[in-house]
């Protein structure tokens, strides 16, 4: 039986893109944007955890496998495809991924159906910065940046870049100054995240809540799932979406 058999399959089309979506739960909405190599069992598990925590969860399927364990070589095949696809920006600095407009549209649609004070967005690895791009839309009130990995940290400039245009970064700064914090989670020794947390501390000040875990893992909520990461992300989403006066 598919791990997604209890989820409602739909599709969201906007901004010239269309992707399958899987929805489950009740309560305020949270979008879980999967990492490479795809919508794996571990991603579905964190989605199911959030369903059990009181949220309506939507998981877009953007690339790679879905619901089955990825084959050993799949990540090696997926990443080169992401390097050339128009939806993502794995190398360019000072740019927002073109998929951001689609994700903001999905957030607005989810909020319209799920209600609540707004929507949470959890991005991971190659989609880590998507939570920042999504919060340009005020409907996103609980952005979570987990181990952000793009642009790939091949130079100091890329390692420090947070995958936003200057205009979008200015909007994020204003939203944080107006009271919308950003949660970031990574393993402290994870080189793939580059120096992005330092950039976010400088740009967002106390509005950036950094959770840096001991160890040399990468995928804080999935393959290298850490209990503190799960607890802090869940708590942040609850405070922002469920415990609002």
Automatic annotation (TrEMBL):
Please name the InterPro entries in this protein's record: AB_hydrolase_fold, Dienelactn_hydro
Q: Name one GO molecular function term.
A: hydrolase activity
Q: Which residues form a coiled coil?
A: none
| Keywords per UniProt | Hydrolase
Residue limits of the Dienelactone hydrolase domain? 26-148
Q: What is this protein called?
A: Dienelactone hydrolase family protein
Query: What is the organism field in this record?
Result: Terrabacter terrae
